Amino acid sequence: MLKFFDETEVGLIGLDDIMAELYSEGRKPTDETAEVIIKRLEERNNYIPPSERVRKEYAYALLKEYRMYVKERSCSGSGHEGK
To answer: What element of type H or E holds 22?
Structure first.
């Protein structure tokens, strides 16, 4: 689920897989990466409204999610401890 600043949530097909792909490609969380995520989501038949304003909101929310994804992997990457 992707959460927007107004607490609206949207389910997206393949978002976790896309983030894993980008992370394995070594992509940094940038505006360009947000656009790549949107493009890949559309390729997986997710509807992203064509409005420039809405696409910017998606890009912002996706970039925030990807930053958290990268941070979580970076923190657990070197000193991973099992439970």
So the answer is: helix 15-24
